[in-house]
Design goal:
Strand content: 5-15%
Bound molecules: uridine-5'-diphosphate-glucuronic acid
CATH topology of the largest domain: Rossmann fold
CATH architecture of the largest domain: 3-Layer(aba) Sandwich
Largest sheet: 8 strands, mixed
Number of strands: 14
Distance between the termini: 66 Å
Number of helices: 17
Helix content: 40-55%
Strand order of the largest sheet: 3-2-1-4-5-6-7-8
CATH superfamily of the largest domain: NAD(P)-binding Rossmann-like Domain
Amino acid sequence: MKIAVVGTGYVGLVTGVVFADLGNEALCVDIDAAKVDAINKGQSPIYEPGLDDLLQRNLEEGRLRATTDLAHAVRESEVVFICVGTPPTDTGEPDLKYVDAVAAEIGRALNGYKIVVNKSTVPVGTGDRVRRIIEQHRTEPHEFDVVSNPEFLREGSAIHDTLNPDRIVIGADNPRAAMKIVELYAPLERPMLITNLATAEIIKYASNTFLALKISYINAIADLCERTGADVVQVAKAMGYDQRIGHAFLQAGLGFGGSCFPKDVQAFAHTVQRYQLDPTLFQTILDINHARAGQFVAQIRNRLGELQGKTVGLLGLAFKPNTDDIREARALEIIRLLLDAGATVKAYDPVAMPRVQSLFPQVHYCRNAYEVAENADALALITEWNEFRQLNFERIRQTMRQPNLFDGRNLYDPQRMRKLGFYYYGVGRAADPSEFKTVL
Ligand code: UGA
């Protein structure tokens, strides 16, 4: 099948590359000529494990190309995926200007029946809006259908997630359009759900918001564990064995970041308000998450006292491992709080340092975790990259000014770290359970 994919961010580029790999002809469209050039040279503009190889193979075999010419891509294709960004406005509502602009151009370029598939995360009702915009801009009465096909891939495992989705949701008001998209996804042999447009649009937000809810929920439990001598890691593990709950997304820590959860929960809160419903539940998810960075820095401050003249080393900056994405990364807020309190901040991240450097030039960027630890009064694990799992902590303790370890992702074994001579703080893991008395 000939497809056009508009927008070459995480969702668009991965969608284009994976559909090309399944044997389709994919034209990837972006307004950014530099990105288009890079893609045509086989260089992915984003860091995503496995993407470069797949991109190069499909370019070489002639199934994929990138272009800035949206109208040409539409005219050449049967199916057009809209994968452009929906960044939040000042009020937190998604800005649909890029979706609108693409819809208008699709309308102008229509030269026959097309299926326009929206993959961007958009509020319920956007499919209808896209349909209206295309109708307003088409110059000839060519038919088209609009489909909502939300994307559930995670950054860092985008290729794997796209090839092995838990489910594929196809929201369409016309069964003919739905069946065409079913055909496109058939080689993946994964469960598919066909719904109407509004249902598919809500499924995306309801899913992301529920995952964010799980994270804020376990973080609220972590706070109680810290005050009572309980261990949130064990609480979450025991909860997770209940099949109705499950283990996933119950890791307490610094909370969620990234380009999706913070923005999507906020957007969903706006949507329910727009329909005169109570957004408190959704707002609370965000409030709990927002407080995490401040609480973590307060722990460091409690231990070190005045931060003026102290050095804090940060391990990891990206919003999660295996990505160079720092959007809404917890590290940014933590750096800001530490610098405001007068601390000297050192940091190392395997891939995200250049991005943070442009925001915080005053941070000392290091070549590895050991350099971060040198002469530091505290070492704080922010992003749980694999390479931080098996560090030589004997060596680290010896080079630190004070052996204080703050584990923002509960990566390390508290007992082992204490045995090695560290003061160890893990989120929701009491320092010494014998020190606590439950209040009854
Ligand atoms: C998320 C969803 O997981 C995807 O299904 C969805 O497609 C995507 O948003 C999107 O809407 O585009 P992503 O933002 O890439 O994917 O990252 P996640 O792996 O979900 O992690 C989000 C944040 O939650 C990270 O900051 C992570 O550190 C944090 N997290 C995750 C926790 O604090 N605890 C957990 O137990 C799990």
